[in-house]
Design a protein that fits this description.
This protein starts with 12 loop residues before the first helix and ends in a 6-residue tail after the last helix. The chain is built from 16 helices and no strands. It is mainly alpha-helical.
Length: 418
C-alpha cells in the first residue's frame, strides 16, 4: 500500500550544475535547439514565399503543411530501428552522426539561398534529410540524458532539458524571424554554426555512453520495446493522449498564414508568434526546474491538455496580434505540463537497457503529433480555411482529453512522480 508520508526533498539544482557531463549535454541541447528553430522558421517562411509566387494563399498553406509530412516520414520508417540502435551502440557516437546530417542539410539550404536555386521540391527534399537525422537523434538523446545523472537528480534533469528546449524555442523563432528578414541565407548560416557548436560540445562528454550489450536480433529488441510500452497502460495512455491532442489541436503550421495574411505582421511578427508557445512553456519549465511535480501528476496532465485545447480555439478566432501571442503562450505552458509528466514517467520506470526503444516509440508518437499534425492542419486549411482549421482542431483536442480520461483511469489517478 503506498505510503502517505511526504516525499523526501529532491537534491538541489546545484548538484546538477556540478555535473560536468550533464551540463555539456545540456549545452548541446541549447545549441541544437536554437539551430533547429531558426532553420524551421526560415524553411517555413521560404516554402511559403516560393509557393506564393505561383499559388494562392490556401495552396501555399498546404505546401507549408507538407514540411511536417515529409519530415515525419523518415521518423515513421526509422524510429523503431533508431531505438534499437540507441540500446545497442554508443549513444554519443549516434548523436555525432546525427549532427553531421543536420550540418549537411543546413549547408544545402544555405547554398540554395545564396545561389538562388531554391524550389519547393528541393526544400521539401532537405526536410526529408533533416527528418532522417532527427529519427535517430531523438531516441539516442533521450536515452543518453539519464546516463549522465544519478536517479535522484533525474526529475530535475528532465526539467532542465525541457528548459533548454523551450529556452531555445523562445530565442530561436524570434531570432529566426529577424535573420529571415535579412535573408534566408543569413538564417541558414547561423543554423550551420549552431550545429557545429552542438557536435563540439557533445564530443567533449567523457562519461561512457555505451549501453549494456543487448542479446538478440534487432527485430527481437524492437518487439520487446513495443511490448513494454503496450503493457504499461500509464505510459501508453500518456503518450497516446499527447499524440491525438497535438495531432488534432496543433496550429503552428498555420503561423505563416496568420502572420502574413490574417494578422498582417510580416516576418518579425511571425517570429514572435512562433516564440509564443515557447514563452509560456519556458515559464512553466523554469517553475518545474525549481519545483518538480511530486503529487497529482495525472490530474495535472489532463488539466494541461484541456487548457492547451482551449487556448488553441482562442488563437484561432483572434484578430489581435498580442492576444494571439498570449493564447500561444498559454498553449505552450499547458503543453509543457503534460510533456513533463509524460517524460518523467517514462524515464523513471524504464530500465536503461530499454530506454532507447521506449524513447523511439515515444518519439514516434511525438513526431506523429507534431509533423502529421502540421500536415492535417495544412490539409484542413486548404479545404476549410485557416481559421476553421485551427478552431475545429482545438475543439477536437478537448473532446479527446475527456475521452482519454475515461479510457485510462490509471493515468487519470496517477499520483507521485518518483
Amino acid at each position: 500500500m503506498p505510503s502517505d508520508d511526504p516525499p523526501e526533498p529532491y537534491p538541489s539544482a546545484a548538484a546538477l550544475l556540478r555535473s560536468r557531463d550533464f551540463m555539456l549535454f545540456w549545452s548541446t541541447r541549447v545549441a541544437s535547439t536554437l539551430g533547429v528553430q531558426i532553420q524551421s522558421v526560415a524553411l517555413g517562411w521560404q516554402v511559403y514565399a516560393v509557393a506564393r509566387r505561383t499559388h494562392t494563399v490556401a495552396e501555399s498553406a498546404f505546401y507549408v503543411g507538407m514540411i511536417g509530412l515529409v519530415t515525419f516520414i523518415p521518423v515513421l520508417l526509422l524510429a523503431l530501428w533508431a531505438g534499437e540502435a540507441a540500446d545497442r551502440y554508443d549513444r554519443k557516437r549516434i548523436l555525432q552522426f546525427c549532427y553531421a546530417g543536420e550540418i549537411a542539410s543546413a549547408l544545402v539550404l544555405l547554398a540554395a539561398s545564396v545561389l538562388n536555386f531554391a524550389t519547393i521540391p528541393l526544400l521539401l527534399g532537405v526536410a526529408v534529410m533533416f527528418g532522417i537525422s532527427r529519427a535517430f537523434m531523438g531516441p539516442a538523446g533521450t536515452a543518453m540524458g539519464p546516463m549522465l545523472v544519478p536517479r535522484s537528480l533525474l526529475p530535475r534533469a528532465i526539467a532542465w532539458n525541457s528548459l533548454a528546449w523551450q529556452g531555445g524555442s523562445i530565442v530561436g523563432p524570434a531570432l529566426g524571424g529577424v535573420l529571415v528578414s535579412l535573408s534566408p541565407a543569413v538564417a541558414y548560416g547561423a543554423t550551420t554554426a549552431l550545429y557545429l557548436v552542438a557536435v563540439a560540445t557533445v564530443s567533449m562528454i567523457a562519461m561512457n555512453t555505451q549501453p549494456e550489450v543487448q542479446e538478440g536480433s534487432g527485430w527481437t529488441l524492437i518487439k520487446e520495446g513495443l511490448a513494454y510500452v503496450w503493457g504499461n497502460k500509464i505510459v501508453f495512455g500518456a503518450i497516446s493522449l499527447d499524440l491525438f491532442a497535438v495531432l488534432l489541436g496543433g496550429a503552428t503550421a498555420l503561423l505563416p498564414v496568420y502572420a502574413r495574411d490574417i494578422l498582417h505582421v510580416g516576418a518579425e511578427g511571425f517570429g514572435m508568434l512562433r516564440a509564443g508557445p515557447a514563452i509560456g512553456a519556458t515559464i512553466i519549465a523554469v517553475w518545474l526546474a525549481a519545483n518538480p511535480i511530486r503529487r497529482r501528476a495525472g490530474p495535472i496532465m489532463f488539466a494541461g491538455v484541456a487548457v492547451f485545447a482551449l487556448a488553441t480555439v482562442v488563437f484561432g478566432v483572434s484578430r489581435h496580434f498580442w492576444l494571439s501571442v498570449v493564447a500561444l503562450a498559454v498553449l505552450g505552458g499547458a503543453d509543457m505540463l503534460s510533456v513533463y509528466v509524460r517524460q518523467t514517467l517514462i524515464q523513471i520506470v524504464t530500465p536503461d537497457q530499454m530506454r532507447g526503444r521506449v524513447a523511439a516509440v515515444s518519439s514516434l508518437f511525438i513526431g506523429a503529433s507534431n509533423e502529421l499534425g502540421e500536415f492535417r492542419t495544412g490539409v484542413a486549411a486548404r479545404f476549410m480555411g485557416a481559421v476553421a482549421a485551427a478552431v475545429s482542431g482545438g475543439v477536437a483536442a478537448l473532446i479527446v482529453t475527456g475521452l482519454w480520461a475515461k479510457l485510462f483511469p490509471a493515468l487519470r489517478k496517477a499520483d507521485r512522480l518518483e
